[in-house]
TrEMBL record:
Natural source organism: Pararhizobium mangrovi
Protein's name in the database: Deoxyribose-phosphate aldolase
Pathway the protein takes part in: Carbohydrate degradation; 2-deoxy-D-ribose 1-phosphate degradation; D-glyceraldehyde 3-phosphate and acetaldehyde from 2-deoxy-alpha-D-ribose 1-phosphate: step 2/2
SMART domains associated with the record: DeoC
Reactions accelerated catalytically: 2-deoxy-D-ribose 5-phosphate = D-glyceraldehyde 3-phosphate + acetaldehyde
Gene name as annotated: deoC
Native organism taxonomy: Bacteria, Pseudomonadati, Pseudomonadota, Alphaproteobacteria, Hyphomicrobiales
Length: 309
């Protein structure tokens, strides 16, 4: 939709209220036993299994893709009463140069390839190159593109320019889904997070995502709460249900459960499905698999048995 700054520019977030609400979420639901295993399986289905390292290789990406196709050991899948091969991650997320390797490794298994683009993580390259990077990733087979926004435009409250840039990125994505990374750890205030969320949504983001994983502070519950409220407000305004992706620093099964509770409490059950909820993580799956193994066998396996992701 066109930029409508009047719809958000006067909103100011009450930081201590947001922090209090976020802190209270943990006590709202206690998910135990079989329910916990079911929630953890759902968390796996929402993971964008990620590798975004300078030393990534095609071989590492191929191993990650093998894990994305079969994220849970077959004996655990069977013990949970699930169809063999039915549990997969939400996507695999890589740098643009690794998209061909991921596409080849995933074949037609149904797991989409997500690519970061637009000068990830800082986004400080000319717009023309940022758009060309999106076009390259899409032509190489990525069906989801994680773009980064220009943080400086948020500090200047230059909503027009921010909206124009993200709209151009949306159009370069073509049919690919676009996730807009706000890099909230660099936005200074929750009010900035709310405003940037609204601009990204108005410019056509299918998802808004907290972080690149490279900021010194990545996904937090208060930031996520504010972004969920923006998704709610944007839905009221436009009728469009955008998705949410916390990313960066999510490493434990407990983290996955906390964010699922947030989604259920703030946006409802539809936002606990991979269509509207993803978790960007490079090292969360191992702990979830360990917890599921514990819930099935009553024993914890050694962490090194879950070497990948
Ligand atoms: O988008 C995903 C993030 O880059 C992953 O961050 P992480 O390595 O802290 O899990």
């Amino acid at each position: 939709m066109p930029l409508d700054a009047d719809a958000f520019a006067r909103v100011a977030v009450n930081t201590s209220a947001a922090e209090r609400r976020a802190a209270s979420l943990g006590g709202r639901r206690s998910v135990k036993k079989a329910w916990q295993a079911a929630w953890l399986v759902r968390a796996i289905q929402c993971i964008d299994l990620t590798t975004l390292a300078g030393d990534d290789t095609e071989a590492r990406v191929a191993r990650l893709c093998a894990k994305a196709r079969n994220p849970l050991r077959p004996d655990l899948v069977e013990a949970l009463g699930l169809e063999p091969g039915s549990v997969k991650t939400g996507a695999v997320c890589v740098y643009p140069a690794m998209v061909p390797a991921a596409v080849a490794a995933l074949g037609d298994c149904g797991v989409p390839v997500a690519s970061v683009a637009t000068g990830f993580p800082a986004g400080l390259v000319p717009l023309k190159q940022r758009l060309a990077e999106i076009e390259y990733a899409v032509s190489a087979g990525a069906s989801e593109i994680d773009i980064v926004i220009s943080r400086s435009l948020v500090f200047k409250a230059d909503w027009r320019q921010l909206h124009d840039e993200i709209t151009a990125m949306r159009s370069a994505c073509g049919k690919a889904h676009m996730k807009a990374i706000l890099a909230t750890g660099e936005l200074a205030t929750l009010t900035n997070v709310y405003h940037a969320s609204m601009v990204a949504l108005m410019a056509g983001a299918d998802f808004i995502k907290t972080s690149t994983g490279k900021e010194s502070v990545n996904a937090t519950l208060p930031v996520s709460l504010v972004m969920c409220r923006a998704i709610r407000d944007y839905r009221r305004l436009s009728g469009f249900s955008a998705g949410f992706k916390p990313a960066g620093g999510l490493k434990t099964a407990k983290d996955a459960l906390s964010w699922l509770v947030l989604m259920k409490e703030e946006l409802g059950t539809d936002w606990t499905e991979p269509e509207r909820f993803r978790i960007g993580a490079s090292s969360l799956l191992a702990d979830i698999e360990r917890q599921i193994e514990h819930s099935v066998t009553g024993r914890y396996s050694a962490a090194e048995r879950h070497a990948m992701a």
